[in-house]
Amino acid sequence: MTAVTAGRSTRGIVDLVFRARELSIVLALAVLVAVTAAANGNFLSAQGLKDIFLNAAILALLAVGQSFVVITRNIDLSVGSVVGLVAFTVGDVLAANQGLGVGVAIVLGIVIGCVCGLVNGLLVSFGKVPALVVTLGTLYVIQGLDHAIAHGRQINAVDLPRSVLSLGNGSVLGIPYLPLITVVVMLAVGYYLRSYASGRDFYAIGSSPEAAGLAGVPVRRRVMAAYLLSGALAGLGGVLWLARFGTVVADDAHGWELQVVSAVVVGGVAITGGVGTVYGAALGALLLTTITSALVVLKVNPFWQQAITGALLLLAISVDRVLALRVARILRRRNARHGS
Amino acid sequence: MAADVTAANSARAPLSRFLRWDILVGVLLVLVFAGGAIGSPEFANAGNLSFALGDLGEIALIALAMTLLVVAAEVDLSVASVLGLSSALVGHLWDAGWAIETIIPLVVVVGAVCGLVNGLLVTRLGLPSLAVTIGTLALYRGLAQVVLGDRAIAEFPQSYVNLAVNNVPGTPIPYPVALFAVLAVITAVTLHATGFGRALFAIGAQVEAAHFAGIRVKRIKLILFVVSGIVAAFAGVVYTLRYGSARADNGSGLELAVIAAVLLGGVDFDGGKGTLGGVIAGVLLIGLLRNLLMLNDVSTEIQSVVTGLLLVISVITPRLVAVARQRRRAPSPVMPTTPTP
Amino acid sequence: MTGAAEATAPHGPGTGDAPPVLALAGVSKSFGAVRALRDVSLELHAGEAHALAGENGAGKSTLVKTLSGVHRPDSGQVLMDGRPVEFHKPADAQRHGVAVIYQEPTMFPDLSVAENIFIGRQPRASLGRIDRGAMRARAAELFARLGVALDPEQPARGLSIADQQLVEIAKALSRDARVLIMDEPTAALSVNEVARLFTVVKALREQGCAVLFISHRLDEIFELCQRVTTLRDGAWIAGEAVAGLTHEALIRRMVGRDLDTLYPKLDAATGEVALKVHRLTREGVFTDVSFEVRRGEIVALAGLVGAGRSEVARAVFGVDRWDAGWVEVNGRRLPPASPTAAMSAGVALVPEDRRQQGLVMDQSIERNIGLTGLKRLRRGPVISRAAERDRARDWAIRLQLKFNRLSDAVNVLSGGNQQKVVLAKWLSTRPQVLIIDEPTRGIDVGTKAEVHRVLSELASDGMAVLMISSELPEVLGMADRVLVMQEGRLVAEIPRAEATEESVMTAAAGRTS
């Protein structure tokens, strides 16, 4: 009997810690929105809200892909450069072949993203090289390729097919396409991760790679899949980027990997793997974007944005760590009491 | 330069099982040098080499501190951001009318504080240094932007610019490179011949055993992060003066070149293995390759592709070699490890 | 029970004429120069519990890992139902119905208990979705079958080791495992937990499961098992029925020699108190531990694994922090959590885990020995290589270390020689108090005697020695006094004259007193 009661309250603690994360993001968002709206009513205008969701859409999409990788106790720093590469190359292809439509653009973008993800995945899962080093390397390789292809050129909105641009600006029933796509992808991925056996494997790998190997989980294949998905979503993100901004240069989305990682970690996906949801990650992305918009509305120096991103990331991992230590200590004491 | 490598190698590092990767890099360095000298006439003259070396200054300086960290199984990804923050501070304070003599010690202290923050988060909270320094990478670069915005400050006093650019009289060696040489010797001795160095290798190879042997693991790691911050901040001063321009985005991405150089030099990313001679060879190899690419009119973007590839190759090759060796040999004499009371 | 006893008559072929469910035939396995298994055979029959006995380093763990697909034999065969099989990885063995319960199971701390059981094989609803309700229900059903009260929804993080093992057994049940291998499952369990585990295992055995059981506690072997196979130094010694076997006979097979000659503790005059530990407490780990060790004395700290013995040693030496109490060395209080301070006060700790805590495995003999004396080896700012080498050579000779060159990495040495390097590393600090945790774990018989001789001499020279050991003969042979810990508390102090296997085990298991 004691085992059960102990178990129940343990579960209570652990649950609380993780539910607290998503709740606290929602709370932080609410406070942020309230304060900003009080200072400047325009913040909550239809246009203001639409801007925030449009801006958050791509970041959240990338955060969903990144969560997959981080849940397996890995990381993909190359996503920003993949977005840049895809935005430019797809834009280049579309500008040169006017007949192509939005479908081709999306397929092409995802294929390019998958190739990048494949390289990362192969190096990490079969080369057994630290993910951070590998993807830092591929980040620069992909960025360099992007520059080499662009060669200082710029893709202009006027050269792009109308169908692609309307993907970026259009809406259905008043809801813009971009956030709609992100929400659909998020729900699908979230459902898969929660409700399919292969989805649970990703959590198992991140929770204990050794135990996963012993339990017969195909570790390499799953890690590979995580990178492929992250690459594919980065590719899709690149196409959305092109559609939203129309005008792209080789430098686009550089440095975004930090925002994406921050969003994921702030959203409660543990950097040590095994814990977190894509919903949390997407919420984290929404929070970061809202902060950026709020800074503009509150007329704070926009140069603060990156510093705040970094500080939030540090805060998130520190809080996770402190909470984990607390839980461990509580469990230690409880076990002791039951032991004697 | 090759003499330098062998000198440091004779300090028998525990890498001997490993095909002597650092010697391999040294040989590769000589080959690239020879190839460059034959292939392009402008390469092997004193003027160009002195320029190539000077261009490496900051990377080389930071690589010294990074080597110590990686040997102790930690890493500092925020170095380029500390460099940027330092550069932004130099520019901002100079613009505000401060004297360079005051500015330099001040930014070095700021660098130490940056390193201290990294170190405290790693040692006190037990967070992985990769995660911490990727956060401070964003934070410090962000602070640089806060300090300087998108301004660019120029026109620093000529006497200081000269120090950063000119050669030591009578030699083709720029002052920063001379400084690097001195620091490299000090670092090599520290790493390979002192108790502190022994402690670093022990921490990197088996942190628990080091702790059990009475080595103050946390304190030593904290020191390493502070040193890394100081060196990066000082490199920021050199960078600013050398280019004569302070900008918030100075040195963006430099951490990659530094880590590539260190790993290329045969330091194991998992810690506990490596030689400073190897790292110096790695730094020079990257510098010469960049210089050759530049002389052949290859764009800077392709240069970053080359750096990225070198990084990936330098981490993956030792693993492949290790796997190949394991296949050939019977599994290492590791007894089954389930504890039996 | 009688049926089982009949089936295990010395020459009987198990249950009827059925081939053994799982068997090893003439298996050998080497790791580098170490021959861990030499031509070992073993048969596991349905409905029978089979014990594997042997000292540390006898090859028991290697045998388990061969059966479970972690290792592949260099020669010989693994047979299932009489047919040769090859397990390339643990998953292969699992597919064939072989389940292993380790002393400390590997779980997914972030997943629920139910998911830990069913990972990769979750019950499915339509469209391949996981049927969480069914998963929960089936886990609850398994726990009911095992008669344990665990909540399938709670996360595995924070489960006690005993509960983790039960989850592993539930997992084995869910896979319809035909062979259950248990590698020292009781080592870290309390008496009640062992009783609960045995009830479960006996029920499984009666349902037709073949069980391979490893334990150091002979009582448990006699209680649970019908047959026993004994290994010594990697070689097969005997395979026989438990019925009719005495404790003494089994010990003789395991040890293969006369116990008394092995532990030559010399009588030494005991001096003043060197180490005094007063009401030391680390919350949740050990409570209110007080004792003294005098010069010239060897005090053994006995108890079951998990009783908190190593943890006390770690706290005394400063590797872990203590929450209350104090430690005095030669009358001076030690600051908490500082190995450096403990070392300069004259304390040395030879830790329990050589590979992780005692040695830097990739580094050379001389560097490992020098690591505790970096200050003393300094000439100016740099380390004197000559001094480092002299120090290493000096101690290598005194401890009769077998090596090629002092610059060889310690990972090429045998376990016994590695232990000598650890000893050299610490004795070269000239300690006054030596804490030594499992001094002879996993080392060969000859070296064992040498280590014991060294310890005895050190005590004669006036060193205070605190020895933690799980090997009762070692405790009884070496110690002047035996302190016994049980579940984090010091429960008994037994002088040499009164220390017997029974008195120490009784105190350790908490059955009486």
Explained architecture:
The complex is a heterotrimer of chains A (340), B (341) and C (513). A two-stranded antiparallel sheet of chain A has the order 1-2. The N terminus of chain A is likely disordered. Chain A is 78% helix and 1% strand. Chain A is globular and about 65 Å long. In chain A, a hairpin with a 2-residue loop joins strand 1 and strand 2. Chain A is mainly α and 340 residues long. Chain A has a single domain, classed as ABC transporter involved in vitamin B12 uptake, BtuC. Chain B is mainly α and 341 residues long. Chain B has a single domain, classed as ABC transporter involved in vitamin B12 uptake, BtuC, CATH 1.10.3470. Chain B has a two-stranded antiparallel sheet with strand order 1-2. In chain B, helix 3 crosses helix 12, helix 3 crosses helix 13 and helix 13 crosses helix 14. With 513 residues, chain C is an alpha/beta fold. Chain C folds into four domains: 187 residues, 3-Layer(aba) Sandwich (Rossmann fold), CATH 3.40.50; 51 residues, no CATH class; 172 residues, Rossmann fold; 73 residues, no CATH class. Chain C is 34% helix and 25% strand. Chain C has 18 helices and 22 strands. Chain C has a six-stranded mixed β-sheet, sandwiched between helices. Chain C has a six-stranded mixed β-sheet with strand order 16-19-20-13-21-22, with helices on both faces. Chain C has a four-stranded antiparallel β-sheet with strand order 2-1-4-5, covered by helices on one side. In chain C, helix 5 crosses helix 6. The N terminus of chain C is likely disordered. The chains are: A mainly alpha (340), B mainly alpha (341), C alpha/beta (513). Chains in contact: A-B, A-C, B-C. At the B-C interface, helix 9 and helix 10 of B face helix 2, helix 11, helix 12 and strand 18 of C. Chain C: It holds the Pfam family ABC_tran. Chain C: InterPro entries: AAA+_ATPase (IPR003593), ABC_carbohydrate_import_ATPase (IPR050107), ABC_transporter-like_ATP-bd (IPR003439), ABC_transporter-like_CS (IPR017871), P-loop_NTPase (IPR027417).
